[in-house]
Amino acid sequence: MSKLYPWLSILMALALAVVEWAFFFEAANWDGLSGPFAPDRLGFNLAWLALVYLSFQLLTIPLTVGGSERFVGVLDGMASVVPLGVSLVAIFGKPELLGTPERWEAAFLLLLIAAIDLFGGYMFNIALSRRTMDVAGPAI
């Protein structure tokens, strides 16, 4: 089962990138009072997205550290760059897509979610690998 977690993590990162792409580039077709990116539901929907995504991504790291497949671990780390890149392209490359203050706030929230996943994941991996390899030295 532990070999499945990195692949699920990769799929979650790519799914977040697809949601970001839909939000930034296709949301004009979905905006409205009942759309998934409606202004009155946007913050609530993003809060649930952040909770589910970061909970899965960061809590499964201890389950995958120490695995024998290093390539999958590297691929998992690189997959976390994709949602970050989508957010950066939308914010700095296509700011005209973010016409309202709510969409700007959502864009920065999505950027921070991706950054926390990327850098927090590396931080947890480094901390856990030091502990398992006893690199930190004896405890005082």
Provide a short characterization of the protein structure.
With 140 residues, this protein is an all-alpha fold.
Q: How does this model look, in words?
A:
- The chain is mainly alpha-helical and 140 residues long.
- The chain has one domain (4-130).
- 75% of the residues lie in helices and 0% in strands.
- It contains six helices and no strands.
- Helix 1 runs parallel beside helix 5 (81-93).
- The protein is elongated and about 45 Å long.
Task: Offer a few descriptive terms.
140 residues, mainly alpha, 6 helices, elongated
Q: Topology, pairings included?
A:
Layout: H1 4-30, H2 42-59, H3 61-64, H4 70-79, H5 81-93, H6 101-133
List the uncertain runs: none
User: Total domains, how many?
Assistant: 1
Report the biggest beta sheet as strand number plus sense, adding barrel if it closes. Answer: none
Helical content band: over 70%
H/E order of the elements? HHHHHH
Q: Any idea what the shape is?
A: elongated
Whole-number radius of gyration? 17 Å
Q: With helices defined by DSSP (H or I, 4 residues minimum), what is the helix count?
A: 6
Q: Which class do the helix and strand fractions yield?
A: mainly alpha
Strands, count = 0
Q: What percentage of the residues does DSSP assign to strands (E)?
A: under 5%
